[in-house]
Amino acid sequence: MSRRADISLSLSLSLFFNCF
To answer: Which domain of life, per UniProt (predicted)?
Structure first.
């Protein structure tokens, strides 16, 4: 539905994995 949410989630996951 909202593409912004998808991008936000993707960025969140990317940052999360980057921290690990």
So the answer is: Eukaryota
Residues 20, 17: Cα–Cα separation, whole Å: 5
Structure tokens, 1: 């539905």
Report which residue type is found at 7.
I
Separation between Cα atoms, residue 5 and residue 12, nearest integer Å? 10
Label each residue of the chain as H, E or C.
CCHHHHHHHHHHHHHHHHHC
pLDDT score for 4: 87
